[in-house]
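ARCHIVE CARD
SHELF: 3
SLOT: left
DATA:
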Amino acid sequence: MAQEVLFAEAPSRLDLQALDLPSRPLGRYRANVWRNQNFETFEGLLRPFLSYARLELECRVHGYDDTLDFSLWESADVEILWLDSSRYVSRMVLEDWLGWLRNRLLDLRSRTTAPILVASWDAWGQESDAQDLSVLVSGVPEAHVADLGAVCHEEGVALLDSRVVKVSGSPISRSAQTVLARRLGCQWLPGLLLPPIKAVAVDLDNTLHAGVLGEDGVDGVWLSTGHKALQNALRVLRTQGVFLALVSRNEREDVEALFVQRADYLLRWDDFSIVEVSWGSKADAVKRVAQQLRIAPNAVLFIDDNPGELASVAAGCPEVRTLFASPKGMGTYRALSYYPGLWRWSVSTDDALRVQDMKANVERDRLARTAEDAGQYFRELGIALTVRYDAAADLPRLAELCRKTNQFNLTLRRYNEADLAAFMARDDACAVAVLLSDRLSDSGTIAVLVAVRERDALVIEELCISCRALGRQLEDTIVLASLRGMRLFEGCRYVRFNFVEGPRNQPARDWLNGLVSRFGGPPGGGEIGVEQLTYFTPPSGVTLAHE
C-alpha cells in the first residue's frame, strides 16, 4: 500500500522510486528552483509525495549559482531557494549572510508575488537556529523558511554527510533526502499551493482504539501507544482550527458511555464539532458533516480502518479525501502528521477561534428562529463589526480567507500575502479586513474586500466572507460598511462587482444578484449607482467601527 511506503518511520528510497501512483492532480503548478547544490536527485524522491498530494509540479531548475542572480526569472507559481549554506561560511558570518540573503529575497519579491520558500540551514552552528533563520522573511510577504537542520533533528537523521558531496553535488545525507522530500511534498508545498483541509472525520472502532465497542464493551477496547499519539494529534489539530467529526456505526449510548467512562481516552466528546453515530451510510454521514460545518466536501479528510467504508465514501463523495487507519494506530498517526493540506505555515488567532465560534452557531440559529425581526436578533446577539483598511498586520489572515473561502468568494482569485500587500501599497487600491464579534464568541476576521478605483467607478476585485459568518443576515452590512468608509469611495458614481463563476460560489452569486436588484442595478449585472449607498446605516443592534 502506498500509504505504508510514504509514511514509514524511515522511508525507503527504493520503495519510493518503485511507487506508481495514479495521476489525478488537484492542480498543476510551475516552480522556479534557484540553487547552489544538487536538486535533481532530490526531485526524483519528491515525485511520489507530490503525486500523493495530487499536486503536479513542473520544476524549472536553474544553474548552480551562489550569487542568486534572478536575471533569468520567468513567471511561476512558487519560488524555491534550495541553498547549501555551508558554501558561504568561509566568506561571511551568519548575520551578514542573513542580511545578504534577505536582500536577495526582496529583489525576487520585486519581480513576483508568488510564494517564496527558502530551504537551507544554519551552517555556522548557532544555538538559536530557528530564530536566526526566521529574520530572513521579516517584512517579506508570502515568504517562508524551511529550516532543514531543525527538521532533520526532529526526524532523528543526520542532515549532512561529507562523503556524498563529490558524488551528488550536495552535502545532504541520503537519509535526510527522503525525510526532506516528504516534508516538501506533503507539507511545505501543499501548504503554499493547495486548499487546506478544514475538517477530519474519524471512525471509532479499530481507528481511535483497538477493538470493537459493540462486542468488547467500554472496558474491552484498548489504546496502544499509536492510538494515544493519534488522539493527541487530533486534539492539536482542533486547537489549530481544524474541525473534528466522529463518524461511527455504533449505538450512540455506547459511544457516549465510552467517552464518559474511559479516563484514558485523550479525546473527549466535546472535542467533536459534529457527531454522526448510527447504522446508516457513512458516505451520507460525511456529506452531512460537510453541510453542517458549511464547508466543501474536498475540505474533509475521512479516516477509517475498513477499506470497504473508504471505498464507499470515495464513491458517494468523490471530493472527500480518505486515509486508511492502520491496526496499531502509529501508522495512522504518522500518515495524519504528514497528510497534505493539514499542515500550516502558521496558526493565527482566528484559527484558534474557529471551532468555538462554530459551536456558538447553534445558539445563533435558535435566536434567528425565535426573534420577531432582524433588529431583535441583532440586539440579542450584541453584534459588533470592525472594519480595518490597508493594515499590514492583517495580511496573513486575509490571504488565508482568499485561499480557503469557496462559497462566498466573488472571483476566486486566491490572492496571497504578496498580492494583497501590493494592493495596499497602491494609491488607487484598498484591501479591507472585517472583524466580527457578538456576546457568544469572537469570530475574528471574517471578510476580505479588495477594491480598485477606475475613474468614477469603484471596482471590487475580490470579496470573500467566511462560511462561519454566513446565515447571520450580515452580508449587506459587511460589504456596504466597508465601501462607505473607504477613502476611494468619495467621488465615485458606480460600484462594480467582478464575478467569476466557480463550482461552489453560487451563494456569492445569489447575494450579488439580490444586492443589485435592491439598489436598482440592471438585472444580471454587477454594477450599482452609489447615490443610494450614501444613505446606508448599520441595522439596529449592530455597532460599527472603522480603523
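SLOT: right
DATA:
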Amino acid sequence: MMMETQDGVELCFPQLFNTSCRKLTSPLFEVLLIHILLSSICLLTVALNLLVIISVSHFRQLHTPTNILLLSLAVADFLVGLLLMPAESIRNTTCWFLGDIVCSLYNYLSAIMTVASVGNMVLISFERYVAICDPLHYTTRITVKRVKFCVYLCWLYSVSYSLFFVKDDLPQPGMYNSCYGECVFNIDNIVIDIDFVLSFIVPFTVIVALYLRVFAVAVSQARAMRSHITAVTLQHSVTPKAKKSELKAARNLGVLVVVFLICLSPYYCLLIVGDDWVSVSSSFVIYMLYLNSCLNPVIYAFLYPWFRKAVKYIVTLQILQPGSSEANIL
C-alpha cells in the first residue's frame, strides 16, 4: 500500500519519503479509458507498420525507390509504436517506475524518431519532384542503391543530431528530475531554437517548395492530356499512362506529407513557445505527433492497392509458399 503524506497524497516511492514524487491521482474510469485507447493505438501502429515492412521487404516488385523510402518511414513508425507510445503512456498516466537510464534513452529515441521521420519526408518529396519534374533523368538519378544510401545517411544524421538534445541527460541520467518517479525531457533554449530551424522551418520550406513545383507540373500535364497533346511532345518519352501513374503517386505521397506536417506543427509550436513539458498541452501534441505513426499505414491502405494485396498475402500466409516473393502485387 502506498504511503501517504500529511496532506493525504500518495507517493510513488514510499521508501524515499523526502525525495519521491507524488502519485498522479485520476478517476479510475478515466485512467482505464486512457490506457485502453492508447494501448489500442499502440497495437494498431505496431501491427500496421509491421505489415508495411514485411510487404516491401518480401515482395520483389515492391523494391522500388519510392517504396524503399516508405519502408524507412514505416521502420520509424514501428519503433514509435513499439517503444515510445508505451513509455509516453506510463510517463503521463502514472509514476515513472522504469528508472533514470530508461528515461534518458526514451528521450533520446523520441528525438531520433522525430528527426528521422522529418528526413524521410524530405527524401520522399525530393523523389516525387524528380519523378514528375524531370522524368527523363529519373531512372539514372533515383536508383534503389542511391535511395538506400540516402536512407542510411538520414538515420545516421538522426542518431548523431539527436545527441544534442540529450548531451547532458545521457551522461547524468535524471539530472533534470525534481523528484523520483518522474521523467523530464529538458531541452536547452539554444538547442530548441536551432532545432526549430533545422528540423521544422528548413524541411517544411523544402517540402512545400518541392510539392508546389510538383503540383504545378502535375496540373500542366493534366491539362495537356485533356487537350490531347501527346506525351512525346510534352515529356519526349513518357506515355500518358506513365504520366497518370506518376501523378497518382505524387497525389498519394502528397496526402502523406500534408498529414505529417499537420501532426508535426503543434509539437514545434509548443517547443518554440516554451510551455511546460509536463502540462496537458504538451502531452496532447506529443500524442498527436505519435498518432501520425498510426495514420501513415492507414493512408497506404486507402491509397495503395499493392498494400491491400500484400496484406492479403501475409494474412492468408501465402508468403510462406515457395516463390511468393515473385508474386504479382502491382
